[in-house]
Design goal:
- This protein has about 240 residues and is of the alpha+beta class.
- It folds into 2 domains: about 5-115 and about 220-235, Beta Polymerase, domain 2 (2-Layer Sandwich), CATH 3.30.460; about 120-210.
- The chain is built from 11 helices and 5 strands.
- It has helices at about 10-20, 30, 75-85, 85-90, 105-110, 110-115, 120-140, 145-165, 175-185, 190-210, 220-235; strands at about 20-25, 40-45, 60-65, 70-75, 100.
- Strands 3-4-2-1-5 form a 5-stranded mixed beta sheet.
- Helix 8 packs parallel to helix 10 (about 190-210).
- The chain is globular and about 60 Å long.
Length: about 240
């Protein structure tokens, strides 16, 4: 085992470049909502070498960049957020566009089901409510919401409802829903109708909760076992 003093600190860029275990494309391209001007949003997970945690200065829990529209989490932070049913992190695990995955990353993907639970209802709805308040503020100030954000909020609420109903998280909206959502992005749907859709989706998610096939809580022990073994592999 390399003594901790012999391991030079790594820059955030080096952590992402040399220690990424999983990376994917997210955003509109993963959701099936891409248009010609859509960005390529990349998300990833890196496993920091274990000896770096023996220093007073710990490796960063996340890294913004180094490329444009790129964001990565350290594995432990990623697992913490996923166990809390963070919508952005859970959806990252279900991207249909995987760009890189190694042995640890494949095991992380195999754990997707361990992170899913009924707690997603609270986290998704709370996130949606926060985003909804921002849209309402835009309407009051500017007379209209940011239509792209309104589109993604409808998509998120639909994803939450379907997850609670089926026990599976699917992030590609499908062709029929794609056109309905893109009409919102283009501002072709009145704000009042968007609000009605949001309210209906929220009610449907509430009703789906009671009979959801999801467990009450995520499988924290299974995730912790995986993280322990990953740390040992990174010695």
């Amino acid at each position: 085992m390399t003594p901790p003093a012999a391991l030079a600190p790594l820059t955030p860029e080096e952590l992402v470049r040399d220690h990424t275990v999983y990376s994917c494309v997210m955003g509109s391209r993963a959701f099936g909502l891409a248009t010609e001007d859509s960005d390529v949003d990349r998300r990833g997970v890196y496993l920091a070498p274990t000896p770096l945690f023996w220093r007073f200065e710990k490796p960063p829990a996340h890294v913004d960049g180094p490329a444009e529209e790129q964001f990565s989490w350290e594995l432990e932070r990623f697992c913490e957020l996923a166990l809390r049913s963070n919508p952005n992190v859970l959806e990252c695990l279900h991207s249909p566009i995987v760009e890189h995955v190694d042995t640890v990353g494949r095991e992380l993907l195999d754990l997707r089901g361990a992170f899913l639970s009924r707690t997603a209802h609270t986290s998704f709805v709370r996130y949606a409510q926060g985003q909804g308040r921002k849209l309402e503020a835009d309407v009051r100030q500017y007379g209209a919401p940011r239509w792209k954000h309104a589109m993604h909020l409808l998509r998120l609420l639909t994803s939450c409802r379907d997850l609670l109903r089926s026990g599976e998280l699917r992030i590609d909206v499908g062709e029929a829903e794609r056109e309905r959502l893109l009409a919102v992005k283009r501002g072709e749907v009145p704000w009042a109708e968007v609000e009605r859709r949001m309210a209906r989706l929220g009610d449907e998610a509430d009703r789906a909760l009671a009979g959801s096939p999801l467990p009450a809580a995520p499988d924290r022990a299974r995730v912790e076992d995986f993280l322990t073994r990953a740390r040992a592999s990174a010695l």
